[in-house]
Amino acid sequence: MPLNLIYLSYLLRTRYAIIIKAERLRLEEDAVSRWRERLDDSTYGRRTTGAIAPVLTEWVRRQHGRLTFRLTQVLSGHGCFGAYLAKIGREPTAECHHCRRCDEDSAQHTLVSCPAWVGERGVLVSVVGGDLSLQAIVARMASSEEAWQAVLTFCEAVISQKEAAEREREADPTAPMIRRKRLGRRRRNYHLHLPLPDGSRTTDTGVSPGPATAPRVTPRAVRCGVGGIAPSPPQRPGGLPN
């Protein structure tokens, strides 16, 4: 190998690598600084952004931890919490269904004070300490893989139970309509065309008798022909298509 290529390879591995790393760190710091400014100016999600902003650099540069659906619910406050469900019109009130002592079931209530989760909370406190404010929790998560795993375990255990309880409330036929699970148009139509145990089909106007063996004709089937074969165009006199 020519000496100039050997020397260039040496520079890339040493001197230039240091320059590239320094430039990368500078760009990262600029990005974090702009991100922090946007968080400070944000008017939404103040609980979450206020907890992450003080440790944003550590949060971005950490080499451990992953965000899951249930962990994100606790960090954001959006999920199986009475306060949030009432806000989006899925519960008539914001009360906690697990302790019946709190008029507002929030993520912080679940994390700090709801007696239904005293066992899970005790395990969490043994790792992260007694300060369960979101800012303290996030700071411990950013600095410690053990703390991150402890918070993740708490969220998975508690939120999964809250989700199961919410599904039971949705399935209760005596529950208020506001609480029941809502089906989209396509899913409603799908349920309408499911065969009943006796072989009949439900329709918009009632039950159609007979076995459910006839194919469902859809607009696409009309255009393409039932079975996916496009019908032949009508012929003009002389054999030319219309």
From TrEMBL:
Region feature Disordered, mapped onto this chain: 192-218
Protein name listed in UniProt: Reverse transcriptase
Organism: Loxostege sticticalis (Beet webworm moth)
Native organism taxonomy: Eukaryota, Metazoa, Ecdysozoa, Arthropoda, Hexapoda
